[in-house]
């Protein structure tokens, strides 16, 4: 009996010892597989900090985890509209730029600047307060959206280039047997229907809600999901679906890693980025629960170094937010290395800012409207 | 030698089904194997994916062991695994000890009293994961007023204890009923102090139940997703939560499949070894 | 012996009292009030407005789907599970423990990985097809058949375990006596074995019915987001932090669960042989 007690005691002690550690910790809440582990390891060594990475797969989950204070996260990386919401509710800590020398030396890419400006605009409309969100968050990646499609289907690419969103939504007029899939995030689904209807996705009304509903019903989607959509397109189990450009590039990178050239992959599945599309930034912010604010600033500073940002982008398909980092990536266009060359090529093709587009950042709706949209979508799906 | 005719079933008026029955039995066996295969279908696919030479989920392009070797380099995966092991080990050990003690306590109650508390005992087991997880989280949030850092390892272990202890109690209780009540009385008559008697006499008698309960608690705890999902914090994600979150963005690294296959093989091996040892023990006794 | 050890039960009574009742009360409160993170104590009031979600088409459909799938799954699990358990019991296999291990082993693998893999091979182009050349399941991914298959084979081990435990407790002498008295094997089964094992059937059915009714991972993944069960609605409410609606729906499910527990007590007065 004594032996058992001693054993249990020793076990629990050693386990608690493993669980605790003497190094200072930095708790980060991030999207899944959205960071290069090498970058994290380098940071840990450079600043002698232990990074504890937590993962969640939606902005809403980020919000509820921070709001409920169940964990003292030091850094969280939400999207723009969620940053606005968190700011409204006083959940953020202002950044100390004296600790962020790298950030002051870089230039943000145009869409990113546009987003910051639009965030300020929508905040003025919403609360009357003028806020420069550059003081509250530093961009991590930015992204656009589009339609990922199965390029093995004859004529689909041409139809998309000519008719745009109509090919996706009008199942009677275009390719009636096309297997269509939709993103199961309420605001995204609503916004996409608004693009098709030539409306501003950031305006909500009951009338618009009903219009959105009938658009979604006419499209006869056979799948609603997030990550599964792009994987099914790749596997030839789905023909067209909404996707973030970064998600498409993730799949592209995997194929490139396995030795394919970009053109080979594009022949199988490609992404169509329409003239009106969503743009968003995910930015690093410091929530009010933060304990290790100094390390948080160090991390933000480290990731704003163009070299590190580019290194991070080797593993994540989204777009780097600074001109300097983008130039580093493009410098590999002539490289002999198969991976680097194709990676640079992918970035130059899909994050090409010279094409005229209208980029819409999404703003957050209030809780009741979101609930209505959510209910509407559940009603569309439920059979 | 007198030749006797042996009467067959037919002579008595019964039909001879024996061949049909034999065929039927074979069919039944095949059917059982098919059903068990059905149970293992997903495990087999996971194993196939773990050997796949490509990250592509829909085509097999050759065998490779690289994901097994890479497994230990995947920091996020290893963290999630480590967290799972910590939580499940603590929860299982504590649940086994407490569950056994509580079962003994409940056993000594009057029947009506006992029935009521056993009913409550079944609630965590039968309650829907989502309801348990959700409601426990709400309760913990009330306590958060007094203990702001409560969410994390503590709430996770508490939540796991909530549904593990009942399994232990349920496993131990039948064994308690089976033990000869005279055993304890004899020990007490011989002058052994009550608690010492408990440990030296009763516990060995119900050993099988305790072990079964421990195994059950461990199984339930290791794979738990929903309850942990709602009740964790401080970055303490276990394997299930991590997999669910990662599936939302990028692709699952095939090392996860490698890990899962390894776990299955180890468990199978462990249980077979245990059986082998048990059989040897029995051989010795005889 | 009894008197001294009664005190051991006391801490558990307190534990159960707190952990069973407090969360339920908390949930009930949130379901019928306007309590959420932005409301102060002063503004707290009881409201029945959340019941409005029961009028929503998707919620009603979700309830219908949940009940249908749960009943179907339980029925199929009963047939398959009883068959397997009975064959195992009747078999001459010396080591039944190994067989039981084989049945439990899949539960040690992560549920989400398993369901995702099943969903994988139910699609048109999948990894199994590229190896063996044809599609084992046709193209049922996204349909009710996929969800049903997934539900049945996820919860079948529970049914097998329950029924097998009950079957093992039957005294073989009873079966022999029945045969001696002239019953055919078929009649022996229906008149002697089955009634004695009924407790296991009830337990197993409940252990299949309840998770099938309330789970959300299996339908979400295997139906490609198309078939919604009540668990999906609750998960959705949680993600969008609409705790009031989520709590209310959970309370309704709780009624089903308590009903099932009471059903168990009818068949098993002591409530102690769930396993």
Features:
heterotrimer; B: 286 residues; mainly alpha; MetI-like fold; 13 helices; C: 275 residues; 0% strand; globular
Structural class of chain C: mainly alpha
What is the class of chain C in the CATH system? Answer: Mainly Alpha
**Might you state the CATH topology name of the largest domain in chain A?**
D-Maltodextrin-Binding Protein, domain 2
**Which percent bin holds the helix content of chain A?**
40-55%
Mean pLDDT, all residues of chain A:
88
How many helices of chain A in DSSP terms?
A: 18
Would you state the CATH class of the largest domain in chain A? Alpha Beta
Strand content of chain C: under 5%
Distance between the termini of chain C: 26 Å
Major sheet characteristics of chain C: none
Characterise this structure.
The complex is a heterotrimer of chains A (383), B (286) and C (275). Chain A is an alpha/beta fold and 383 residues long. Chain A has 18 helices and eleven strands. Helices cover 50% and strands 16% of the residues of chain A. In chain A, strand 1 (25-30), helix 2 and strand 2 form a beta-alpha-beta unit. Chain A is globular and about 70 Å long. The model of chain A has no long low-confidence stretch (mean pLDDT 88). Chain B is mostly helical. The mean pLDDT of chain B is 81. Chain C has a single domain (55-274), classed as MetI-like (MetI-like fold, Orthogonal Bundle). Classes of the chains: A alpha/beta (383), B mainly alpha (286), C mainly alpha (275). The interface between B and C is large, with 94 and 94 residues.
